[in-house]
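Researcher: Let's try something more involved. This one mixes different molecule types, so please make sure each is placed in the same coordinate frame as the others.
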Amino acid sequence: MNKTLQQHTLIFLQSRNQLLAYLRSLSGNSHIAEEMLQEIWLKLSQAIDDDKDIKDTLSWCRGVGRNLIKHHWRDKAKHNNMPNENLLDLVDRAFEENQAHNDNFSDFTDALRICLKNLPHKARELLDYKYKQNLKFEEIAQKLNENKNTLMMRVSRLRTVLQDCIQKRISQFS
Amino acid sequence: MSHPLDAKEYHELLEKLKSGKLSIEENNRLTNALQSTEGRSDFFKNCLFTSTLQDVLSEDPNSIDILKKSHNTSTHSPIISKAKPYRSKASVYAAFSGIAALLLLGLFFAFQYQTKDSLSSPIGFVSLVNNNVWIQRESLRFKAVKGYTLKSGDKINTEKDAFISFTYIDQSTIDLGASTQCELSKGFKNKRVHLKTGKLYADIKPQINSMTLFSNNATTIVLGTRFTLENLKNESQLKLNEGKIRFIRTSDQFTINLHSGQKVSSIDLSVTPFRDEEKTIEATYQSWDNDNGVFSVINNDHQKMVFCIKHQQNLNENFNQNDLLRTSLNKLKHGNHVQLTYRVKAFLELTKISPLRSSLEP
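Model: All components are placed in one shared frame. Result:
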């Protein structure tokens, strides 16, 4: 691996969480997002091989990601509506403005791990269905024999509980 | 939130954005919400939180157990709450053919997955290997050789008297000692290693996203440091040479922040001082494999000892020293008496070697 690609790869890996969050927020599917992330790295290594001048690795990768997302949506166009370009620009801007947010990301992840361990069994099960198995609320409602809106509300509350717990844990770490 | 959407509506819109179900009107509402800096910051935090949640839930093997348990005990499960129905022969045949179809489908997906995996990017490469070390990648098992690329999901298994060292893209290295089993992270994620048995030594370059090592009784979180992690009987032990480490006992999630020169055991979490000591012995030189950086000696107790010099990828301070060591070894002949100094890590690493006067005499 040449030195330039190594440097870009390091930035790519350091920003992995942000890139993945970007891809997941627009594709809605964790596995597709992971595949897109690999695709981005392959395109990055190809661009370095072709001596392309990449000044801001993260922006460049997000740009490639945006194109991949568009392709993905076009493939599914029969069923879905594509967000307009204006909305996509704003999503890009949201990630660009906050890309320095990576500072205490490892503390954040550690805290989240601990907070999740302390959740009651049922709450953890619900989060697993939603975020690990990527099920829709309708599907979870069917599985658990509960109302879709109740589940949506419960997930929203759980997110708040976790976020509060993370803040407490992070202050303990520091 | 200052944007004109309440939390529930905002959450609903984000869900629809992900599934491509935003109507034109909803598209405009979300666009308006993202016009303000605060709205964009909320959006970013929301996405990052969800994504991290997905990562953490996917990495935790316990969550699978929880789900399995819930399938066995849940009163919501229609399969369990129903009485056992009568099954005719025809329905049994139908069930068997269904299972066969599922198996075929499974095989098809396994094949597809393997094809995709072969395209996945390497995360590092084998920089040193001695004796038999095996790499298991999906259904394939092959012997590790120097320079071989490693991918996420690879399982590495060192036999007795074997060791391996591998280097990540950012030059962080991990050494595995003899009789060690470990698995590299699944998926395209940052460094994550599961140490199942044996011992590893890690030299991790500064990371922005922490590296996580799972051992039998503890989770270790590092940002950039040198340390040794060992799985003993009912115990995980960690010795920290440099930097800081967070050590979390698996059983109760008790967390300890460890500093350089300290060691900790998962049994009582007692932190005791630890010195990265060198040992010096006299021995008879046997053979030297320059390509692998491995050489052997016979010590005064007539036991064979295998040492190694790790190849340095960067021009750092160790480079010249290791170059000197290699030159010294190239001058030695079989049967020469030597004095050598080494450190005990995942395997024995040479720091100094010199021939004894007796070996220079005719």
